[in-house]
Structure formats: structure tokens, C-alpha cells
Amino acid sequence: MLVANRIVGNIYSSLRATIFLVRTTVESCKTMSEPENPSSDAVEDVEDEDHGEETGEVGDSQAIANQLMKNPGVLAALQDKLCSIVGSPSGYIQSLPKEVKRRIKALKKLQNEIIHIESEFYKEVNALELKYAPKYSELFEKRKEILIAAREPTDEDCDWASEEEDDEDKDEDAKLAPDSQQGELKDKVTLEGTKEAGGDSEEKKQEFVKGIPSFWLTIFKNVEMLSEMVQEHDEPILTHLQDIKVVIHEKDPVGFTLEFYFEPNEYFTDTVLTKRYEMRYDPDSQDPFSYEGPEIIKCSGCTINWNKGKNVTVKQIKKKQKHKGRGLTRTVTKQVQADSFFNFFNPPAVPDGSESEMDEETEALLGADFEIGHFIRERIIPRAVLFFTGEAIETEDYEDDENDEGEEEDYDEEADPDFNPEAQGKPNECKQQ
For bias kind Basic and acidic residues, which ranges apply (predicted)? Predict the structure, then answer.
């Protein structure tokens, strides 16, 4: 209760100080507007003013200050002042007795030991991930084989109930038909399936689709975080993406590497593009209490060997230059960076040493990059098929308002028995603010 009262007192004092500043500004403005050398008549008038008139001036200042307090700009300044107070020390800890401060130091030392135990826990988790990585890899390899049509799944592999399949309805209809009509019904279903495919069995064989086309591209477009990175010129390239793997580092520097596997294509000669992330499991010695678990501290990409004229990460722009002396104008072509998903493999470099050396733009880019890399490792790769179907995509649910009485209807004045235009008077005129 004492701390709360002090915080409220600080806010109130700051508010009074701000109001006093506004009033002082008003008084200063009034003083500056008065003539520096008043005439003798003006001096006599001032000397003749009684105390009541002085009180009136104070009242005018109060009115002006109150008017300023209604100004949105002044209110915004007051709000900024109040926001700067939030989180500021209340002075409570500093006012505690010496023996209490000593006990707080002991608690902080215990907290530091707790944080180091927490970091050891996350190191053990990393060791468990290394242990189970081969089991995951085996299943991910089977997934890749189905995606690229290296293996066709068996009936046993496809034994998974799905509410969206129409086959269950057709099977139910077949069970209800008499035995004498079972063969005829099967032929009918086969014939209808052939027609839906666009023709006879020969045409169906020609149009047979291998694997699951654009699997990873569809995932990237379904996930908002990734769809913002994918440009229209990136999509034809990403159709050649066959798999994404994560490799956990066993030795220092600890971390993980994302491997993007591409089939041979016309855009670049590489078959694997990599993105490496380094992580820190120990708390920062300079600020141990900020520790919230392992964090990515550095990342590095790879060089993409683009074929001539296929590099989508750069674009050519033409710029006119004028000679200062001769006044002649020439057009030069300049190469600049273009928006592309493949800039993901060319992140900004993290300077060695303190993170404070980075500018705000670089720090923001790296923060977003770390988040994307972590999301691909923890969510996209393990649950790829669910992001492909959209089942793993988080959507905001909106509930209907219980007080909603229905859609708005057009109002008919003539049909309203209580409508009386004379009783309502004239409408007020709009005043421009």
C-alpha cells in the first residue's frame, strides 16, 4: 500500500508540475506581449489597480490554462510525461533499512544460481534433441520420398481417416445397394471418376500428377510470417524446393543449420542452400537476470550461384547524371537489392563484441531473421503437412455479438406513426473544428 501511495504521489506531483509549466508559459507569453516602456498614463493605471483586478488577471490565467488543458497536443504531452513515470523507481527499495537490503542481496544471489540451473536444463534438452534426431530424420526422409514421387505410399501408409474424403460416402452407398447391383455400381463409380479426370484412361495416365506439387511453396504462402518474404518472382523457383532439414550442431559453437534442398533448375546451380544459426545457452554475464532461455546470437547464410540473368535478389535501375561543368546528361545503370525470399540467405553481419554497436535497422532485421529461423525449425519442419492443409495455421475466431438483433433495415418515415418533423425543430448547424 505504501509503494502504491508513493507512485500515485509521484504521478500527481508530476502532473502538478506540468500544469504549473503550462501556466508559467501563459504568463510569460502575456508578459512578452506587453510593451517594455509603458507611458506615464499606463503606469498610473497600474498603480490605481486594486487587489481585486490582480485576482482577475490570475483568474484569466487560470482560464487560459484550463483551455490549454483541453488542447489535444497539450494532453498528449501530459500523457507522454505520465508514461515516462511508469516503471520508474518509487524509492521504496532505497528507503529500506540496511539489514533488509542485505537480505535482498542474498535473494539475488540465489536467483542467479536458479538461472544457471535453468541454463543447464536447456543444455540437457539440446542433448535429448540430438539423441532423438535420427528417429525424426528417418520419418522426414519418408515424407520427402512421397513429396518428390520417389516412393508411392501403400494402402497401409494411407490408412488414415479423413472427414473430407468422398470415398467414405461412396462406400456407404455401395453397402446399401443389393448384391446384384454391386458390380454395376463399382463400374459406375469408376466411369464417373474417369470423366472427372478429363477423359479416358489414356488421358488420365498422361495427366497423372507426381508427388505433391508446390508443397513447400504452399506452406510459405499459408504462413503469414513467410508469405511476406515471398515475392511473385520467387514462386517459380520455390516450386523446385523438395525438402527442408534441420541439423543440430553437436560441437561448439552450438546451434543449428537449416538445409534447403532443390532439384536441378534453371535459376541456380546449387542443390542445397544453407542458413546457420549460433545459439547461447548460458546467461549473459553482464545481465544474468534477463535470461529467458537459449537465444540465437548470430546467423550466416551461403553464396547462391545464380545463372546469368536469373538472380532475383537484385534489379537494374537507370539513373540520369548531370555533369556540373559541361551540363551534359548521361544515363547510367545501377544494380540495387530487390525484395526476395532468397535474401534470407544473405543476412546482415553481426558485429563482434557488444550488441549495442548495431544500428536499430540492423538489429530489427536480425531480430526478425532469428524469429523466422526458429519458427521454421520448431514449427514448419515438424508439422509441414498441417501447414500445407492449413490445419496448423492460427486464425482469430470472432463470435457473434449476443446483443445483435439482426441486420439494419431501411427506415420509412411515412410508416412511422410517431414521426413528427415539426416537433423536432431545426437541426443544429455543423461547426468546423
Answer: 184-205
